[in-house]
Recover the amino acids of this structure.
């Protein structure tokens, strides 16, 4: 089948990895996928775009749009939301051109707040459209929506006028159904792991540890953003007094973000540079190497509705992870079997669990192998693609 993948994300980080994984899995099954991205989005560089889109980014209005998008990064939230709404004016021309060139059997769209034009165009063209839902106007946010009323109205309309919906968690589906009533048919499809890219057998764990200055240590690791909501500052602050007593404990923190300098200051003030390594931002294709150095993972905090990519990548690398027992996490993790859970928002329980895992090497190895087995059996991207395609029948 010919498929158009449409999205409005910046295409960086977990969003970009998720988009690329879905596209690659569809192509692996013989489908021809054309990716229609926000101008300049990273997936356009990482994922080969079909000839139908060649040259489109050279149009002056797309260059203008990209420039305006850059201005919104530090703009007040209401300005950002207005630009999200206005983006709907750009979609019909671009998407219609793509449809005419590709003649897709269906459109796969990553849902974004305030975005309705994709579903509107698909309905006008009588083309099936499947929405992938990773976010919602209904969830609690650190920065509340200014135009929440309109975000909810748009969300209700697209959730009831698309062909089907792929929710990344039951939490999101139940939330939408409780607010909007009957929706288009849907499936629950958490994230997945790439067992080829994330394969521990391709790496020399001890050599990488030595390269990082953590030779001989048992490494607890984190990969991802350093936002306030990720909990890295409090985790590092609370774990330092514990690991000072255990020189064999190494902490590897891979990533960057607003809290990076604060985390570095905490580490330096405690004189823990020999036990805690900060890599800063790394390219995604280097992430498996850093994961290979880790013996288990840590995710101190997460929101109530997400399906964290880093969990599946860690499990694919034969690592269990210590993370909060949110509803979406409990959908895919069996505590003590494929990872280790602690009560949401219980910081001390998190620290205690990390130290317990550190002190039990047999359990780490067993859980790691079971986690890899789970990904191999039922949580690969090919499994996700097979499930989402059932929405067309």
């Amino acid at each position: 089948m010919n498929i158009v993948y449409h999205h409005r994300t910046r295409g960086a980080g977990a969003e970009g990895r998720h988009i690329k994984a879905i596209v690659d899995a569809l192509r692996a099954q013989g489908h021809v996928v054309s990716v229609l991205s926000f101008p300049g989005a990273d997936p356009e560089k990482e994922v080969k775009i079909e000839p139908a889109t060649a040259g489109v980014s050279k149009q002056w209005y797309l260059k203008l749009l990209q420039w305006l998008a850059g201005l919104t990064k530090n703009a007040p939230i209401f300005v950002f939301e207005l630009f999200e709404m206005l983006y709907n004016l750009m979609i019909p021309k671009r998407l219609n051109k793509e449809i005419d060139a590709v003649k897709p059997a269906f459109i796969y769209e990553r849902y974004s707040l305030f975005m309705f034009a994709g579903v509107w165009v698909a309905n006008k063209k009588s083309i099936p459209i499947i929405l992938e839902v990773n976010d919602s106007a209904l969830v609690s946010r650190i920065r509340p929506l200014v135009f929440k009323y309109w975000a909810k109205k748009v969300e209700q309309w697209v959730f009831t006028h698309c062909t089907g919906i792929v929710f990344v968690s039951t939490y999101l589906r139940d939330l939408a159904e409780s607010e909007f009533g009957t929706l288009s048919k849907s499936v629950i499809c958490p994230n997945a792991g790439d067992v080829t890219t994330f394969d521990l057998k391709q790496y020399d764990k001890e050599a990488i540890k030595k390269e990082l200055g953590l030779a001989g240590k048992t490494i607890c690791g984190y990969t991802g953003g350093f936002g306030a909501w990720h909990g890295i500052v409090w985790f590092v602050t609370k774990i330092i007094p514990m690991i000072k007593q255990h020189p064999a404990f190494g902490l590897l923190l891979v990533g960057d973000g607003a809290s990076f300098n604060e985390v570095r200051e905490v580490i330096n003030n405690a004189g823990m540079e020999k036990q805690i390594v900060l890599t800063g931002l790394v390219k995604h294709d280097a992430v498996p190497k850093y994961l290979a150095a880790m013996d288990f993972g840590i995710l101190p905090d997460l929101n109530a509705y997400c399906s964290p990519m880093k969990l599946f990548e860690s499990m694919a690398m034969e690592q269990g992870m210590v993370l909060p027992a949110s509803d979406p996490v409990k959908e895919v993790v069996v505590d003590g079997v494929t990872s280790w859970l602690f009560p949401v928002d219980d910081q001390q329980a998190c620290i205690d669990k990390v130290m317990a895992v550190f002190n039990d090497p047999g359990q780490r190895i067993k859980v790691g192998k079971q986690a890899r087995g789970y990904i191999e059996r039922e949580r690969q991207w090919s499994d996700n693609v097979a499930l989402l395609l059932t929405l067309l029948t």
The mean pLDDT is 91. The chain has two domains: 2-189, 200-378. The chain is about 45% helix and 15% strand.
